[in-house]
Amino acid sequence: MFLKFFPTPLLFLLLCSLSTILADYDADPTRSTMEQFSGYPTQEPDSVSSFSVDAVSSFSVDAQGLQKQIDELSNFSDTPSPSVTRILYSKMDVFARRYIKNLMGLSGLSIREDAVGNIFGRWEGYEPELTAVATGSHIDAIPYSGKYDGVVGVLGAIEAINVLRRSGFKPRRSLEVILFTSEEPTRFGISCLGSRLLAGNEALMKSLETVVDSQNISFFDAARAAGYANDEEDLPSVFLKKGSYSAFVELHIEQGPILEEEGISIGIVTAIAAPASIKVDFEGNGGHAGAVLMPNRNDAGLAAAELALAVEKHVLESGSIDTVGTVGILELHPGAINSIPSKSHLEIDTRDINEMRRNTVIEKTHQSAITIAKNRGVRLSEFKIINQDPPALSDKSITKAMQAASQELNLSHKLMISRAYHDSLFMARISPMGMIFIPCYKGYSHKPEEYASIEDIANGVKVLALTLTKLSLY
Ligand SMILES: [Zn+2]
Fold first, then answer.
1. Which interval of the chain is the signal sequence (predicted)?
2. How far is the CA of 439 from the centre of ligand 1 (A)?
3. How far is the CA of 242 from the centre of ligand 1 (A)?
4. For the chain, what is the domain count?
């Protein structure tokens, strides 16, 4: 039965790691003979070595229950259905957290919350001193978004635990479900706040001292109101050491159209592209749109337009389809039809899975900004790199485990890159990391039309569950 459960090359590794158990098991010749005779184990199915059925085919996801939970969770929203708005430390966020903690409790997980509200639900393994295997995602939602982004990776993870419990599986390494605080930057302008802090970001810790939201409420006032950190002194306790987990896996909707278009059930993420964001300001003299003749102008708006085109050029020069750049914000001052723009403001987002290539785009963009300012007689008053996170590669042993799991479950799968970033990007700093994608309708995300079928979600949960067994036993 053990062979049936792990019919892959991983079997060898698992056999090695479980040699002690198997040694005990094989040590009793009477039992071996009995089993050969009856075809059934003589032991109760209460440990890994005594799986009495083909555990993989017995994996059953409670799809109806899971859909109900997704729907119920979406009700904790500040905007009407089908949109979801759930902002960090808001009343709805607190209610939603309570809902998740309740489910974790029902799944028999022991719950811990840290000072910023990252929530951990732990299923103790039979070798609890080993580093745990973790999985999880986020439940915060930007204004007027959908009910699947992040949620599938939290409710799906809890259901994966239920699947494993029902199958009779016993984890060797402990398994942990993590709900990350504030993956979205909505309230304080900081994305992946919880996972960044878990990965031990001291600069972020310092900046939280002064950060306020649009209502001028400080981070710590908001956190305190939700029952979390009082002040900066509480934050170092959030940091986790490198090596705190032996593996981290996140289940997530693709947020892109590839899997749906190609009719593939599972995406296995090999790398997460990381963004850099830049703010640029140009200043010129402005003037009357009729009175100032063309040779006498120093138009800050045209400098911005030229830089936007330069960003596109530098991105295309990389020669890689994985390099992207966007000028998503371009503001002109004073913004009147008959006034030459005296100020312009651009915000540039550039991403790649290759850090060097992305940083080359930033450097070239900076050089262009300087040249454009000189040629047009405007001042480059700011060129500020707001963030420049390194991309992350998935761990090979985790992608292999995810591939093997998909194969054993007879699910079509392909290797792919995550072009959006996730808490996994930051978990990769402290743990080997991997991500499982499932298809979503037309790739829609961050809007009410966001949708993933419960069949696709259930497939993702099964792959996650089987991957967790492999990583837990390893
Ligand atoms: Zn997400």
1. 1-23
2. 14
3. 23
4. 3
